[in-house]
Specification:
Blueprint (H helix, E strand, L loop, with lengths): L3 E7 L13 E2 L2 E2 H11 L5 E6 L2 H9 L3 E4 L7 H11 L5 E5 L8 H17 L23 E4 L12
Length: about 160
């Protein structure tokens, strides 16, 4: 069985909306809504919040999340996820879950996870850098089976770790 981890990158220092991960929506931080949705997915073996900020880490610990502290030098969430993915060898693939998608449907994560597990077993994963279109997901494929899942219907291109 292939083990999957969902990693949610979160940073405080956004230029457009500093502190967005902890902005309250219906009396809960935005990031907590995303984390809870991820745990509703049946195909994830772990959900990890990747952050470089202790305010985010403390809040996430308070609601029971697993947190991985990352370098503050990363330019993107994908970089943050790559750092965590390099250290978490027990997972066969990583799903990059965007921290500002509080309405992400857990069934989308499960559907993509199932499809990826089948492709891994049958070795029919598309080649690196191939564009992939999914009805309601965009995926970034990279080495060691790292994928970005969002609700956006746009195309995404593979990014190596």
């Amino acid at each position: 069985m292939n083990r999957a981890a969902g990693i949610i990158p979160a940073r405080w220092a956004s230029t457009r909306f500093p502190g967005k991960p902890l902005h309250l929506i219906a009396n809960k931080p935005l990031l907590r809504h995303v984390w809870e949705r991820c745990w509703r997915a049946k195909k994830l073996d772990a959900v990890i919040i990747a952050t470089d900020d202790m305010r985010i880490a403390r809040a996430a610990f308070d609601w029971g999340a697993e947190v991985a502290m990352t370098s503050p030098l990363h330019q993107s969430g994908t970089d943050r996820i790559a750092e965590v993915a390099r250290k978490t060898k027990q997972f066969d693939f990583i799903i990059n879950i965007q921290g500002d998608e509080p309405l992400l449907d857990p069934a989308l994560i499960d559907a993509r996870s199932t499809s990826l597990q089948q492709r891994i077993r049958s070795r029919t994963l598309p080649k690196l850098h191939r564009r992939i279109r999914s009805r309601s997901l965009s995926i970034w494929m990279a080495t060691r089976f790292t994928f970005r899942v969002t609700r956006s219907p746009s195309l995404a291109i593979a990014q190596p770790l």
